[in-house]
Each structure stands twice: as structure tokens, then as C-alpha cells.
Amino acid sequence: MQASFQRISPFLWFDTQAEEAAQQYTALFANSKITDTQRYSKEAEQASGKPAGSVMTVAFELDGQKFVAINGGPHFKFSEAVSFVINCRTQEEIDHFWDGLSDGGDPAAQMCGWLKDRFGVSWQVVPAELGALLSKNGGAAMQALMQMKKLDLATLRAAAGA
Known about the structure:
Layout: E1 11-14, H1 18-28, E2 33-39, H2 42-48, E3 55-62, E4 65-71, E5 83-88, H3 91-102, E6 114-116, E7 122-127, H4 130-134, H5 140-145, H6 153-160
Parallel strand pairs: 1-4, 5-7
Antiparallel strand pairs: 2-3, 3-4, 6-7
Pfam family, one: 3-dmu-9_3-mt
Protein name: VOC family protein
InterPro entries: 3_dmu_93_MTrfase, Glyas_Bleomycin-R_OHBP_Dase, PhnB-like
């Protein structure tokens, strides 16, 4: 059996938390695992400033989606310009991912289903039916959405008349 080929993979740059982030994310998502960890060599230590033997990259999968994280140093920071959308079928899924990712994150960066986790990565935890709900009932669902941090599926459905 041939392994699946994923042409494009997100690559996340951390200072020193790549392994910690990969562990948290893989614990939160079903069908997830760390697939490889590479460490800085003695030669790379000189070029990178990272200690030999420390984690350089961590390859992992979240619900089958491949990611790579690097401990590359403090040169770059995450921004809300890029986020990961988690489509949820139930309120229980919304609660699971919201609670797991927002713990230790930035409360000021929470609105309309968006959050920033403790590593600075932005996520959108949304119901899979959000687009359909927002297109119903003349914008009432959008008005309800704009008042929320964590999304409440029952309230959105009621506002949409669904």
C-alpha cells in the first residue's frame, strides 16, 4: 500500500516550544501523532545558536493533516494573518477544541470563534455549518456571532431560524 502524499504542509516556527506545541496539539485531536523528531547536531549548533541535542524539528499529524514545527529562534512571531480553522459538527466538539486550545492563550484575542493559543498560534473553532447559518435570515446569525467569543451552536441556529 502506497503512503498518502501531501503536497503542501504547514510549517510552524517556534523559539523553543515546537515539541511542547506538537504534544499539546496531538493530544487534543483524534487520529493524531508525532511522526518524527530531529535534533540539532554539533555542526548545526554553531550556525543556529541552539544547543546540540535540542529539538530542531518535530513532524506531526493532526487528524491526518501533516505539519512540521521548528525551534528556529525568536526571530519570527505568529500573527492572526494566518490561522487554522477547525470545523466542528457539535457543540461538544466546539467546547473540546476551544477549551483545549484557549487554555493559557490570549483572552484578548478571542472573538467570533477565533482564539490565540499559549504558543501564539491563531485558530478558528467553528461549526461546520457556519456558512449555511450565516446565509440565512438576513444577517441575524451574523449579529449573534459578532457577540460571541466561543461559538454557541444552538444560539447561532436559533438566530438563523434553523
